[in-house]
Design goal:
The chain has 589 residues and is α+β, with helices and mostly antiparallel strands. Helices cover 34% and strands 21% of the residues. Strands 5, 6, 7, 8, 9, 10, 11, 12, 13 and 19 form a ten-stranded mixed beta sheet that branches.
Amino acid sequence: MRGATDRTEERRTYAGSSSLTALVTHLGKDAESWLQYALEPLPETFRISLHRHDREWTVEQVKALGATPLSWMPDETAFVMPFARGRAPDGLAQRMMALLHETGRITRQEAASMLPVRLLNLTPETLALDMCAAPGSKATQLAEGLHPHGVVVANEPVSGRLNMLVSNRSRLGVANMVVTQHDGRHFGRLPPPGFDAIVADVPCTGSATTRKNRDVWWDWTPKEGRRMFKMQVDIAMRGAALLAAGGHMVYSTCSIDPIENEAVVAELLRRCPYLELLPIDDSVYPGLLMHPGLDSWPLLDEDGAVVHDLEAMKALPFFSPAHLPPTLRRNEAHDTSTEEAVESALKHCRRLWPMDNDTGGFFLALFRHRHAASPEGTAQAFRSKRERQREPDWQPKVRVAPKPTVNSVTLAEDEVMGHVMGLYGMDATPYSIWQRGKRMNLAPPMVKTRLYDQTVPTNKGDLWPAGTFHPMRVVHVGIPAFTLKKDSWRSRQEALYMYGKDMKSNVLEVSEEVFIRLLRGWAPLLEDFETVSGTESPPAGAYLIRALLRGEEEVISVWVGARITLMIDTNEQNILRHKASLPWRDEEE
């Protein structure tokens, strides 16, 4: 305890003289007001899962623990708790928060991180891209906003972080997500016209995350933002190139450094003339105080002092002329009209400071691909194909896509799909159905119609064939709904949250009384189950049990062998036990 206290005091002492606080003061903010919040932990905030059948029950539970709705998230979809992040009081609050998160009924997410998705004009037909998706809070927020027909492509280049993304998709049970693995700067092409909406929440220095990442005080120096700048521009430019005409892209960071924010936005406007920076409608965030973007900013040396001389600026580590604000670039004989337009547009950005709303810090910019710049309606990434087609007598060639491997995602074979759908009494029409190894996944039809069934132009104007995701590197599609194990296709609990109601066969209907007995650990022999439930004993294998519990339909997986046993994890069992007013599993005598 003393070590933690000493570390806290050391941090407070260091923070006041840090280069990060120097940046804050140079940006016109009061250091004491900033430090008052920047040194304190964040409040616990979270989103409610929109597609769960027991959403109203979940809202009742969190309100009973003291949750208050976030004013700028609609229809009680996000809440703040009366305690700090990760510091729920011992007892019911601590246990319920953990259970609700682990079973996917809520997603713990910093309030500021929820902002980018709120800016996008999502429709049921939107195909969206999250360029840097792990651990998945924004990607799953997109998926829930697009449920059930729209699709989000969630991209993550780093394998370890990609596993976190897939885990969060499974925890929430969302089916309208396609997971890809690309360096965001070189994201593979998709079929025209491109993405309708993009979130480019790029890697950054995290200079606005001091409330959850305490090492930032020591790690951040002015050169770090300049070092990150090029990668941030490159990622955002690739996103812009993949954006269909009329589509929207949000650029965001959890940094306060203008070099990572307004300077990146300015460079995008210079290099992507087909983009326009849109004003952000503050009414989207009722009750949230946000500030316009900056049109001028200082460059700092490593001690946090402002560098005024241009030659001295050029000597700074990782310096680029693109770091300069438009006023200085205009004075250096650049395109005056362009710099004036950029300077005027930057006020459309929005900054979030921790002390204004008791949140973390954040930066937002909203772009649109102008229709007039691409009247054919497609993303700029396809322009090279169009130029090549103008050559006399030229015809595109259909190239040969790489052969699938054992780890590839492929369309489910008709025979296997028919068997599994028939086994569970499901109509295959509302889905696209995929296989990866011994798993069968369900996803919206859009995955097939917009990403799989169309040809994709190469950068030389040739074509990758339809019937493959190539050149996108797709590693997961939809939600794993069934697993082949011991020659039996078994339903998976993570898919029952979404599709359990659609399964009409292989289901045992039982009373609430029998359901509660099973929750309490009753593992009856088949003859005992038949006697008590009035249900004829089925042959051995995987089944579903459906029952009303306190007026709500619940569906769980069971295995029928010599006995009937539950196939759901302890967390889900404890949620169901709580609904039935039973003790937690570890507390039952």
